[in-house]
Specification:
The protein is an alpha/beta fold. The chain contains 16 helices and 14 strands.
């Protein structure tokens, strides 16, 4: 009995030791597997086209983005499925076209949950063991912008309270694998542009900028373009800081860095329009150490493809509802990108487009709304439009420049952007291109059907439109004239004055009753 008891104790000890060894080994293996997954840092610049030095933009210096492009892959043909921030961001957060998910109207349906089966990709990353980080404490405005058109919270659990991220502002080695989404807001139009320029050690020389042909060559327009490039250089410095932090924390080599724009630059034919400056966005990817990649890529990529690619990198099985595709998959072969423009503030647009390898087709379903629609938001932030309106009235614009100020838009537009990169020749009425027009028209109609919204809910945010501008015109005529002369006089300042004016008028109305 004693021998049996002793033998049993020995056996129990051996079993316990083996169990502990197994637990330790398994735990170590789980840790190894977790660290094998690369970290992913998604840096999203606001309102930017191909305006880095590595894309050939004159007068600007972007050594950090240039170096990333040299180390990784520079993509030339990435297009947004939308050309406005919240709609394209909604598409990228889900990986499905914004029209399909009924998130295609700017800043609408903010209290409406995503329809089933759609989910934010951060939720899928979370299930795969990723820590989701939003923003960074050392970039302008902390880089926390989400701006999607469905019910959500910045931090929380998606299945409980619609939370999209786990934490704010800082990634650590202990968070690995982590996904960090960081917005570089400086390139968005804002009251800080002049200050950034004044603090720059080498502000861009307006005489050195090269304006596209749709712009009048005017000192105010050159200065505005130079200021924009000053913001791009500021963003380059922010990118440098982020890279230095990744290296200091020892996680750079195992991190994928994705640099992208949310839509094109905020200027003529840019943000809000489906022409090339509004829809073609920068894309640079720095891959993990040892990952084989091309230096440059001419692949046609939709903004939703980036979402699918992130999920693929993280080892997530791609959901069937994605309209995006992983472009690191050997079977990836996108032929075109379907884009859509809906409501933007008080302008109820309806525009569809298809962009292929050579041609872009645009169908304007509301041709009665002109390109220059006198949208309230844009009155504050497009000095070129104010200057060129005056030049138009004086008959001083050439044919290409004048098109932007015609009372209507063409029903259809067709451009050969390989041979006409600034899209100055609309080929829609050219009989030599009737077959191309017919084919792309049909492709667009088919995509309209495929991307029909899953819901008819329509709850847009109400905006004041031109009322604040008219307030400045009436009460601050000198400042209004500065605006007409091509100056940004400060939206926030006069927006606050306008709101105080409304409150005062409301108080008077109440007292008079």
């Amino acid at each position: 009995m004693t021998n049996n008891t002793s033998g049993m104790r020995i056996l129990q000890t051996v079993i316990l030791g083996l169990s502990l060894l197994c637990i330790t080994s398994c735990s170590h293996k789980e840790k190894e597997n977790k660290l094998e997954k690369p970290n992913i840092v998604w840096v999203m610049l606001e309102d930017i086209s191909h305006d880095f030095e590595c894309y050939g933009m004159p007068a600007v210096k972007t050594p950090t983005f240039n170096a990333l492009a040299e180390e990784g892959t520079l993509y030339y043909n990435c297009y947004g499925t939308a050309s406005i921030c919240s709609t394209n961001r909604s598409a990228m957060m889900v990986g499905a076209h914004q029209r399909l998910t009924n998130t295609h109207h700017h800043r609408s349906n903010r209290e409406e949950p995503l329809a089933s089966p759609f989910q934010p990709f951060t939720y899928l990353l979370k299930q795969q063991g990723y820590t989701n980080v939003l923003g960074h404490k050392n970039v302008m405005k902390k880089g926390r912008k989400i701006d999607v058109n469905f019910k959500h919270k910045p931090i929380g659990k998606w299945e409980e309270d619609y939370g999209l991220f786990d934490k704010f502002d800082e990634f650590t080695a202990e968070d690995q694998p982590f996904f960090a989404q960081i917005q570089l807001a400086v390139t968005h139009r804002g009251d800080w542009w002049t200050e950034v320029r004044e603090q720059s050690e080498h502000p861009v020389n307006p005489a050195e900028v090269q304006l596209p042909p749709e712009y009048a060559d005017h000192p105010a327009i050159r200065l505005d373009w130079a200021k924009y490039l000053d913001q791009v250089e500021y963003a380059d410095n922010e990118m440098k800081m982020l890279i230095e932090e990744l290296k200091a924390k020892g996680v750079y080599d195992n991190t994928v860095i994705i640099v992208i724009g949310d839509n094109g630059r905020c200027n003529i034919k840019g943000k809000g329009y489906l022409h090339d400056p509004g829809s073609r966005i920068p894309l640079i990817i720095k891959w993990p150490e040892g990952y084989e990649h091309d230096k440059e890529s001419q692949q046609i990529i939709a903004s939703t493809d980036i979402t699918a690619t992130i999920l693929d990198i993280a080892g997530v099985e791609l959901p069937d509802y994605l309209t995006g595709q992983s472009f690191i998959d050997e079977n990836f072969d996108r032929k075109n990108v379907y884009s859509y423009r809906g409501l933007w503030d008080e302008i109820p647009e309806q525009v569809s487009s298809i962009t292929g390898e050579r041609f872009r087709y645009i169908r304007n379903d509301k041709p009665e709304i002109p390109y220059d629609a006198h949208q309230g938001y844009l009155e504050w932030y497009r000095p070129a439009v104010h200057v060129m309106r005056s030049l138009s009235e004086e008959g001083k614009l050439n044919e290409i420049q004048q098109r932007w100020f015609e009372p209507t838009k063409p029903q259809e537009e067709l451009y050969d952007f390989i041979n006409d990169p600034f899209e100055t020749h609309n080929l829609a009425n050219n009989p030599e291109y009737k077959d191309v027009l017919k084919q792309m028209r049909q492709e667009t109609l088919e995509m309209d059907q495929q991307m029909s919204p899953v819901s008819k809910v329509y709850d847009p945010k109400i905006v004041p439109g031109l009322a604040p501008v008219n307030f400045v015109k009436e009460h601050y005529p000198k400042e209004y004239q500065r605006m007409l002369d091509g100056e940004e006089i400060g939206y926030k300042k006069y927006s606050k004055l306008y709101k105080k004016h409304l409150a005062k008028e409301k108080s008077k109305s109440v007292q008079s009753k």
